[in-house]
Amino acid sequence: MNQNRLQDKVAWISGGTSGIGEATARLFAEEGACVAVVGRRIQLCQNIASEIESTGGRAIAVQCDVAVEQQVQASIEQTVEAFGRLDIVINNAGMVDIGMLHEYDDARFEHVMAVNVKSIFYSLKHAYPHLRKQKCSYVVNNGSISSFVGQRATPAYTTSKGAVLSLTRSIAIDYASIGLRCNCVCPGITDTPMLREHLNATPDPEETLRQRLRRVPLNRALQPHDIARNILYLSCEDSAGVTGTSVIIDGGYLATAEWDTADDPQAKGNDQ
Ligand SMILES: NC(=O)c1ccc[n+]([C@@H]2O[C@H](COP(=O)([O-])OP(=O)(O)OC[C@H]3O[C@@H](n4cnc5c(N)ncnc54)[C@H](O)[C@@H]3O)[C@@H](O)[C@H]2O)c1
User: Fold this and answer.
1) CA 23 to ligand 1 center in whole angstroms
2) Which ranges of the chain would DSSP assign to H, the alpha helix?
3) pLDDT of 173-199, one tens digit each?
4) 157 among known catalytic residues
5) pLDDT under 50: residue ranges of the chain
6) Which residues does a 6 A CB cutoff place in the pocket of ligand 1?
7) Domains in the chain, CATH or no CATH each
8) Contact by Cβ (8 Å): 59, 13
9) pLDDT at position 270, please?
10) Residue located nearest, by CA, to atom 41 of ligand 1
11) What is the pLDDT of residue 269?
12) pTM for the full model?
């Protein structure tokens, strides 16, 4: 339910054109924020921004490859020019590169680290002069269950998501004195284009998903909105006092060493 929790706040949201980023942009706008929908493909950004505006929200489309510092800087400046301030930075853009480490070359590893980790450094660096003007400001990074555990054939991704959690703590400590709180969300299996791309690389995507969900006590894929609601929590004073930590949204995946929903007589299945 809309409670205007972000009234008059300005949010920069990377990867805002699909999945979790798109859900976050829409939810933030519903809560009263002015939203910069940041992405590489300007037409997609414009589509989301126009839809938000057509339902009474405020949004702009901003083109940016988060792996390129000058583009991150320009996108933040564009946001402040449009809305006059900046309160919230959501480092959501991310990528996976599937492969074994011995098959990787330097460029592949570097690129994943640039998109998933260095982008946070760039956005903090260039948002800092604006965030420090606010009494309260917020940085929310998108980690993963891979921030805590390994995953098959995604060495750069898991490394990068471990780093997202570490960087979250560093930012929280170093900028607490300016009223900035920094946290990360760590999603589990979430039904987005990224997950679908991953599943589609397997012979039977639906069966692969079913098999994976057997290890999730809630026995369902999370929806982008589930993650967006937790990003919202970390981007307003509902989470006052919370900094340098992570909210794991994984349907219980990390809570258990062994689990198989088929063994659970009370399993409800995909009931939500
Ligand atoms: N879907 C899941 O199961 C899952 C689980 C854990 C973590 N995550 C994290 O959630 C975040 C969002 O992913 P999603 O699942 O919504 O998938 P998604 O593919 O819908 O979103 C990723 C977004 O990042 C953007 N992006 C990628 N590289 C970029 C770049 N260089 N510059 C700007 N934008 C770029 C993509 O265009 C896309 O909009 C990612 O950081 C991902 O690692 C997802």
Assistant:
1) 12
2) 19-30, 42-54, 69-83, 106-113, 119-131, 155-175, 193-200, 205-213, 224-234
3) 999 999 999 999 999 999 999 999 989
4) yes
5) 272
6) 14-15, 17-21, 39-40, 65-67, 92-95, 115, 142, 144, 187, 189-190, 192-195
7) 10-250 (3.40.50.720)
8) no
9) 53
10) 94
11) 59
12) 0.97
